[in-house]
Design brief:
Elements lengths: L1 H22 L3 H16 L3 H5 L8 H7 L5 H12 L13 E6 L5 E6 L1 H24 L7 E3 L7 E2 L5 E3 L1 H8 L20 H13 L6 E3 L3 H13 L1 H10 L10 H9 L5 H14 L4 H4 L5 E3 L6 H5 L2 H5 L4 E2 L2 E3 L4 E5 L7 E3 L5 E6 L21 E7 L7 E13 L2 E9 L3 E2 L6 E2 H14 L4 E8 L8 E7 L8 H15 L1 H6 L8 E5 L3 H11 L24 E6 L5 E2 L9
Parallel strand pairs: 1-5, 3-6, 6-7, 7-8, 19-20
Antiparallel strand pairs: 1-2, 4-5, 9-10, 10-11, 11-15, 12-13, 13-14, 14-15, 16-17, 18-19, 20-21, 21-22
Helix pairs in contact: 1-6, 8-10, 10-12, 16-17
Length: about 575
């Protein structure tokens, strides 16, 4: 049965890939037709009437009439949509809201309709076509997938529309046929407790010696999955032999009963894993799943930092990027293993590119996909069936080249700064607001601060790095750190949710006087212009603060421990 399902899905995916490749040879025609169809379909919405979409005939007219607007201009419409109003940004009713957080520091609700969802599903199918083709070229068999993101929504709007992360909407709204690719009952993804969900998914997956794919939204989550496997290896082997789920796993009794009915004992498999565990002293994914063909996870941006640790857990297993997307849109489709560049998803939206010299212009001028220049960096704008028009989320991409006539590009970073221990996306705006509140609350003067991520554990904890102003003392560092955690939870919904069971508690470093002056000088030496230098208050660059002398480090479970000298440095 599984073979028939994979055969059918592969055939459909390869057909979608072939059609997409044909369209990459006529990118201008495809993009022009997409825009015309969208404007015609949306012309009678409230937004369409406001901007007179029915009168627009050309791309230039569209760019002249529709301004590049931030989320705040869409927010009043989306709030009304969340309350059940129709025909505002799109003519179709909203079936889900993707939940995100952006540079404004407020959570964003992104409308998902059946039409917009079909576009996302089609992009995923094309990406599947590329990975099936790559697997065949490398003689890698297809097998079931281990993917542990939750499928349960975070909540509902006042009109009853569910909302949650984009991975949740993808899982909730995928077709029943695609749910068959998972190595466990789909109900396992409904478990809200992260440890319990990982445990159950791993338990079912370990029964399948032919498991072929591990999926994770981000590389850090793939490493976290490996950590769960190692942490619970003994219990997993015991449960596998008995066909039970450990009593300590927090599950609703009815859910436990239903799952255990589908979990049969596998004593020989348990014995094999027990031998592995005894020989190696740990279980890693590459050892536990000997037929692992490839991993699907995000590429580009900060992913390479995490990929450096992959060989320890996954060996040389190929990595495929799937689609490059956000809660708002799909931007690109990966085409092969171990490559960061994506092909512009020309069937999913109408796209424009904002050159670097236009980022701060009062009336920025865009270029079109067939006009971009390899080696140049742009911010990418999208117009799509989610109800956004010329929307800029601040993603900075670099053009690698062209696939036929269609751009290939790599995601570099999000303009404005963002860090994530898992997937919470804490922005510079968030931490600035928190630190401003804390400075008032503690009557504290800071020379500067920067929030970074640890490099010694996965998921990483936040390092709150502060330098006190001259003659300033912080009398309650533990209380200060606790209030940082509390305030960030209040201001950043995704952080609050992930801190429950995914993101570890933050830690505090009090740096020696002159530390941030040293960092500024480093940045200038690297090429930054002194009078234009904007110091980052959040960064995923683990080397930015390296070598700085530390006066004290604080954990929430411990008091500050002053160092006897300044020879303790940031590593």
């Amino acid at each position: 049965m599984a073979h028939l399902i994979f055969s059918l899905l592969s055939t459909l995916a390869l057909r979608a890939r072939a059609d997409f490749i044909q369209n990459t040879k006529q990118v201008e025609a495809v993009q022009t037709q997409f825009l015309r169809s969208l404007l015609r379909y949306h012309q009678h919405t409230e937004w369409g009437r406001q901007y007179q979409l029915a009168e627009i005939r050309t791309i230039d007219q569209f760019r002249n009439r529709i301004p590049i607007l931030p989320y705040s201009n869409y927010e009043p419409f989306i709030e009304r949509m969340a309350n059940g109003e129709l025909n505002l940004l799109t003519p179709d009713p909203v079936i889900f809201f993707n939940l995100t957080s952006g540079s404004t520091g407020k959570r964003k609700l992104i409308p998902v309709t059946r039409r917009s969802r079909r576009k996302v599903a089609h992009a995923n199918q094309i990406a599947m076509g590329f990975v099936v083709d790559a697997a065949r070229r490398h003689s890698l068999p297809l097998g079931k997938m281990l993917f542990t993101s939750p499928s349960k929504s975070f909540g509902y709007t006042t009109s009853g529309i569910p909302y949650g992360p984009i991975s949740t909407s993808d899982l909730r709204l995928m077709g029943s046929l695609y749910r068959q690719v998972f190595a466990y009952p789909f109900e396992a993804l409904q478990i809200t407790d992260a440890a319990a969900r990982h445990y159950v998914c791993l338990l079912f997956a370990l029964r399948d010696t032919s498991l072929g794919v591990i999926g994770a939204t981000f590389p850090a989550l793939a490493l976290q999955l490996a950590e769960y496997l190692e942490r619970y290896s003994s219990d997993l082997v015991t449960d596998l032999a008995k066909g039970t789920i450990a009593a300590w796993v927090p599950l609703d009794p009815e859910v436990r009963e239903r799952l255990e009915r589908q979990l049969t004992a596998a004593p020989q498999r348990a014995k094999d894993l027990e031998t592995l565990l005894a020989d190696k002293g740990r279980l890693t994914p590459i050892a536990a799943f000997p037929n692992l063909s490839f991993i699907v996870t995000a590429r580009g941006g900060t992913s390479d930092f995490y990929f450096e640790r992959f060989p320890e857990f996954f060996g040389n297993t190929p990595i495929f990027g799937g689609t490059y997307c956000s809660a708002e849109a799909v931007y690109g489709i990966h085409r092969d293993f171990n490559t960061n560049g994506v092909i512009l998803a020309i069937e999913n939206g109408f796209y424009e590119f904002l050159p670097e010299n236009q980022w701060d212009a009062a009336d920025p001028q865009t270029v079109l996909p067939w006009e971009v220049i390899p080696g140049q960096r742009y911010r990418i704008l999208t117009t799509n069936y989610n109800g956004f028009y010329r929307y800029d989320i601040g993603d900075v991409v670099e053009i690698e080249g062209f696939y036929n006539q269609t751009p290939i590009f790599v995601f570099r970073y999000r303009r404005g700064g963002v860090i994530s221990s898992t997937t919470e996306k804490t922005t510079e705006f968030h931490v600035i607001q928190v630190m401003q509140a804390l400075r008032q609350e503690f009557d504290l003067r800071l020379e500067n601060f920067c929030v970074t991520l640890s490099n010694d554990c996965i998921p990483a904890h936040y390092w709150v790095n502060i330098e006190l102003a001259s003659a300033t003392h912080l009398p309650g560092p533990t209380q200060f750190l606790q209030r940082f955690d509390d305030c960030l939870k209040e201001m950043h919904v995704s952080y609050a949710i992930k801190r429950r069971d995914q993101v570890p508690p933050p830690r505090l470093r009090i740096l020696a006087p002159g530390s941030f002056a040293m960092v500024r000088q480093r940045m200038i030496q690297r090429g930054a212009t002194e009078f234009q230098l904007k110091f980052p208050h959040v960064t995923e660059d683990r080397t930015l603060l390296a070598g700085l002398p530390v006066l004290a480090e604080v954990q929430l479970s411990h008091t500050a421990v002053p160092q006897p000298s300044l020879n303790h440095t940031v590593v």
